[in-house]
Amino acid sequence: MLLSQLPENNPMDTPTPQQGLSALTDDAERNRLLAEMAEQSTDMISRHTPDDWRFIYASPAVTHLLGYTLDEIIGMSAYELYHPDDVEDFKRRSPSVSYERGLYTHTYRFRCKDGHYTWLESTSRSIRDPNSGELKEILVVSRDASRRINAEQANRRLARILESSSDLVAFVGLDNRVTDLNEAARRTLGVDNPEQAGLALADLFTPESYQQLKAQAIPTASAAGSWRGEAEMQAPGRAPIPVMLELLAHRSLDDRIEYFSTVARDMSEAKAIEAEKQQYQASIGHATRLITMGEMASGLAHELNQPLTAIVNYVRGIERRIGDSDDPKLTVLHTPLQRISATALRAGEIIRRMMDFSRKSPPQRQAVDLQPVVNDLIEFCTSTATRQNVQVENMISADLAAVVADPIQLEQILLNLLLNGIEACQQIDESTPAQVWVDASEQGTDQVIIRVHDQGTGLPVTDTEQLFEQFFTTKRDGLGMGLAITRSLVEAHGGQLWAENQPQGGAVFCFTLDKAT
Predict the structure, then answer these.
(1) Does the chain have fewer CB atoms within 10 Å around its N or its C terminus?
(2) Distance CA 428, CA 456 (A)
(3) Following DSSP, what letter does each residue of 334-403 receive, concatenated?
(4) Quick check: 15 pLDDT over 80?
C-alpha cells in the first residue's frame, strides 16, 4: 500500500448537504477498502505514538514478519525492538534514513519474538492535527528486506575478496569491452581506470591468446558456462605473462548472457621454477654421466688397451717382415694394414662414443629405433659383462615401433639399467653364465614398454619405490643417485620407471616411452 493513498488530514471545502452525504459515503467506502487492503497486505502497516514510538495499531502481517500477535505488539515501543547498533542511527537520522516528499525511508534490524533479528525497510509519514499542526502519530509501512540486505552484504564481501585476490580478474561486456578490473589486474596490467582507458579484451592478451579466446574460450563458455586453459596476457613494458585462465559466462534470470568475466592466475613464477627445474635436471644428468664415466673407467681402459695393443703387434709384424726381406711384396702388407685400419677405427669409435656421452647439450627429442641402440650398448658393456661372467642379449624385435626420446639420454637410461643388471649377477655361480636381456613391446596405441631383465639375486627391499630415492643404495660403494636420476630422465620424457622381482628369480626394470608417430 502507498502512504499517499491514506486519507489526508487537511481541511476540506465545505460541501452541500447532498455533496456531504455522498462524500461521507465515498470516504467510508474508501476507508473500508484501505482497511481491507491493510489487513491482507504482506507488508506490516503500523501506527506509533510520536514520542516513544509505541505501537497503537499493527496489521496482521506483524505475526508473519516478527512472530508477535497483535495483542503482544500493541503498547510495545519500537525502540525496544531495534538492534542496539541501529537505535542511535535512527535517533540521529543517520545516512541510512532517506527523505522524499514528506516521507522518510529507513532500513534497520528488528528483533523478532524468538530473539533473532531481521532486516526491515520502513517508509514513515507524520500525521499531524490539521488545525494546530501538532504531531499526533506516525504511520509506517514495513517490509522484509532480509533477502536484499543479505545479498548486498554478500556482494560487498565478495567484492572485498575480489579486490584483495592475487588473481587477475576482468569483467567484459558482450561487445568485448572491458568494464572493470580488480586491483591485481590493474596493477599487473598497468591500467588505472579501465572504463576511461577504453580497453578491449584484445588489449589484455597477446594476439595468439586472443584468437584462442575468440575461437575456443568464448564459444565454450557461452555453451557450457565456463572455459579453462592456458593463455598469455600482455602489459606495457613487460614480457608476455603466462596465466592459467578461466572464462565465465554470466546469465540473467531469463538465461541471456549479460557479460563475461576472466580469472587469470599469474604463472610466471611457476614457469620460472619449472624452467629452473629442467635446467637442474639437465645439470644433474650431466653430472651423473660424468660419474658413470668414472665408474666405467676400468672398462674403458680395457676397451682402449686391446686395440692399441693390436696396433703395436701388427706394426711390429710388418717391421719384422720388412726387415727379413730385401724386397718385400706389397701383397704381404695388405692384410695387416687392413687390420691396423680397422682396429684404429674401433678405438676412435669408442672414444667418440664416450665424448658424446659426456657432452652437455640440450635434449633433442626425435624418433629412435630401440634395437640398434641396445646393440651398441651391449657391445659397449661386453668387457664388463665378460669379467662378471654375464651374457647380455638383445631380444627387441626389429619391427618394434620407434620411440620419441633424446638419443643420448636414452642411452644413459639403458646403460644405467644394463650395468645394474650385470652387477646384480656377480654373485651367481661362476660355472654357469648369468643372463641379462632386454625386450620391449607396444603398450596400447601410444606407448612402448622396455624391460631390462637379470638373473641376479633380486631386489633386496620389499618397497621397490625406495630404490629410486636419492642417496638410497644397496651397493657397498654406491652413491644412491643412479636410479633416482634414471627415473627423473624417464619422467622428463613423459614416461614411468618401476622395478619388480621376477617369479623365476632375478629382477626386471621397466620403463615406458611415447611411441613415435
Answers:
(1) C
(2) 7
(3) HHHHHHHHHHHHHHHHHHHHHHHHH-------EEE-HHHHHHHHHHHTHHHHHHTTEEEEE---TTSPPE
(4) no
Confidence class of residue 131 from pLDDT cuts 50, 70 and 90? confident
- In single-letter form, the type of residue at position 106 comes to H
Residue 7: half-sphere exposure toward Cβ, Cα within 13 Å: 17
Q: What is the value of pTM for the model shown?
A: 0.39
d(C-alpha 144, C-alpha 65), whole Å: 7
| b/e burial code for range 98-135 (CB count within 10 A of at least 16 → b) | eeeeebeebbbbbbeeeeebbbbbbbbbebeeeeeeee
The values of phi and psi at residue 145, to 5°, are -115, 15
HSE on the CB side for 76, CA within 13 Å?
19
Q: Average pLDDT of 18-26?
A: 51
Cα angle at 39 between 75 and 65, to 5 degrees?
Answer: 60
CA distance 414 to 486: 9
Highest mean pLDDT (candidates 81-95, 200-214, 426-440): 200-214
